[in-house]
Amino acid sequence: MAAVSGGRRSGPAAGVRFFCTAGRGLEPFLMREVRSRLAATQVEYISGKVFFTTCSDLNMLKKLKSAERLFLLIKKQLPFNVSSVSKGKILNEMQRLTNDDPESWLNAISIWKNLLELDAKKVKLSQKNANPLKRKVGENAIIAKKLKTEQMQEIQENKECQLEKQIEEETLEQGNFTTKRDKSQEELQNDVTEAVDTHNQNNLTFRVSCRCSGAIAKTFTAQEVGRVIGIALMKQFGWKADLRNPDLEIFIHLSDIYSVVGIPVFRVPLASRAYIKTAGLRSTIAWAMASLAEIKAGAVVLDPMCGLGTILLEAAKEWPDVYYVGADVSDSQLLGACDNLKAAGLKDKIELLKVSVIGRTNRICWWIKCEEKNKDD
């Protein structure tokens, strides 16, 4: 399956093929989320992974809450048959992942670069807009550059007019000589462009992260598969291996159900929330549990055994116009939850209570009714 539908077009406008890893049982949550949040199409899933096509940029992709990691899809195909095939033949089949369709690899690399470049430009633009003085200086520089460009264009146009007259004279004298020269110039320009693209590809450093499960894991280790794929990539594209700080990471998962190859879009997993200081319940599970509550604006939400407050944090980030209350009997858990609220900037949104669920159930219900009555009044 190609990373992009529609030839060599590379960018969000063309519709890019991604996949996300998800915890067991969270695939339906992730499918609903990519459809609603990203307007994704061609959504499908297999155990632990959800595949989809979207035109969204990286800023929107970062907002996925039920996904573990996000990958740009290079290939998805049937699993390798290891039952009745020799080990050497399986290794040859693995090498064919890169050798049979190099175009899909180069296309995916171009899309990956474009996504990162677009994201970097947006970050720079937001930084410029944040400082009016810098923005003014930048605008003046742009105006000066524009004036200089216009002057250069005038000079260039004059030169082109003179050149056109000269060419016309030469054409009358020499016939088809001009046509041949134009063709040679176009061929030279194409050769230069191709050489630049090849140079950029050859400068890439990479590493292969491999995961094997099922029958193939009994035949090969992840290190063996990674070595085979790595050597094939070096031979095919001239990339250099760098295990510590590569430009590019290639992720491969081989199982009894599928063979998937992709590029991690972000170095940090989506499930690692920057606003959670001390992790308790897994953030993706906490978000899924909060989404099941069907929270609406103006509601009062109580987590009677909040622990470190992970569910409340996920809910408050997604649905801010709600009053949240967390209760727990453990001092250490409440202190941890308080630190998480401060780190997330949600101390005013969530109230913490030291309450025993077993001994104070009636009191909690009475307190919620009083709060709802006060809001109605």
Describe the SSE topology.
Elements: E1 16-21, H1 27-38, E2 41-46, E3 49-54, H2 58-61, E4 69-77, H3 87-99, H4 102-130, H5 132-174, H6 177-202, E5 205-212, H7 215-219, H8 222-237, E6 240-241, E7 248-254, E8 259-264, H9 283-292, E9 300-303, H10 310-318, E10 323-328, H11 331-344, E11 350-354, H12 361-376
Parallel strand pairs: 5-6, 5-7, 9-10, 10-11
Antiparallel strand pairs: 1-3, 1-4, 2-3, 4-8, 7-8
- What is the number of helices? 12
Total number of strands: 11
Oligomer: single chain
Q: First CA to last CA: what distance?
A: 59 Å
Structural class computed from helices and strand pairing: alpha/beta
Low-confidence stretches: 1-12, 174-183, 188-199
The outline comes out as: globular
Strand content: 15-25%
Order of helices and strands: EHEEHEHHHHEHHEEEHEHEHEH
Q: Report the biggest beta sheet as strand number plus sense, adding barrel if it closes.
A: 8 strands, mixed
Helix content estimate? 40-55%
The radius of gyration over CA amounts to 29 Å
Question: For the largest beta sheet, what order do the strands appear in spatially?
Answer: 2-3-1-4-8-7-5-6
Mean pLDDT value:
80
